[in-house]
């Protein structure tokens, strides 16, 4: 087959055009691969292909120009046409394969556009500022939030800080907490602002500003506050009901004791009459003693003190039902602790009369500075079984727990109730 110099002009022209297109394709690939691939061997190969076709095209184009003008030329490359075409097609295939590899690499690698697109898809508002304070990278959410706050585009970090400090006065954005930097926007969403420094690989420190959506947490906090408010109201109602239950229980027990004394008085009168009729002196003395105690209890009840302290009323109630109270020590000054201890004393008073048949109860109160305690015993019968808190004792336990104290019940060898309450600063003054 003829070489390039002996071929026809149309064949030479077609080959030169193919070589020129291959050269352009090689140059384009060389530019496209610049900075995207770190494999030096491929970079050298691309540069070598480009220089080879540049030299080949220059030599053949110069000879073609001289042949066209009828000038003398040199046959630098007396290669057959088929070999030149094979080299051209092989180079084109190599460039196409290389181009496909760059395309696959471009889909896998991160670019500026891909980073910006990924940043725009984030639900949080994010912006990076240069050390001078100008915007380096900002996503759409941050742009939208800043326009709501300042009605302008974000340009510098100082603008963002000034807008957040004056947000209450300009755009309807409410600052919920300056310490936590939380803001409520007009659309009902709550956002928290955070600003930190980020150091890049080149050592430059950028400022990262982030708005995080805390709407769900904000709504849950509002619901929690509403529930706490309702629970406080319910707690007050329960405390009122518990106090009333204790009062009703106390009145019921006192009424039972008074009724028993009235019955004893009536039985004593009948017994005295019967004994006097039968001249039984010793039994008459015993009946008179029972009658005397009943009358004394009624006398105490009629002389019930009005306007006196809760402790005085307790002692009066004990005397009204014929119970002697031995009180040692001092009760705490704090009204709440004092009230709980007197409730415990009343509960033991009624239980000792009703279940143990006691005539005396012993109360030992003690103040230790950081706590106050009271221990209550009686001279009645010991419980046959283990005492389990129920009824009045259960209500008393709830009051003790509400004050942060402890309650201990002893059944053997005799009944004893111990209540320990923590003394607050108010109570120790």
TrEMBL record:
Keywords: Kinase, Membrane, Transferase, Transmembrane, Transmembrane helix, Two-component regulatory system. The chain crosses the membrane at residues 12-32, 44-64, 76-97. SUPFAM superfamilies: ATPase domain of HSP90 chaperone/DNA topoisomerase II/histidine kinase. The keyword Membrane applies. PANTHER family: NITRATE/NITRITE SENSOR PROTEIN NARX-RELATED. This is ATP-binding protein.
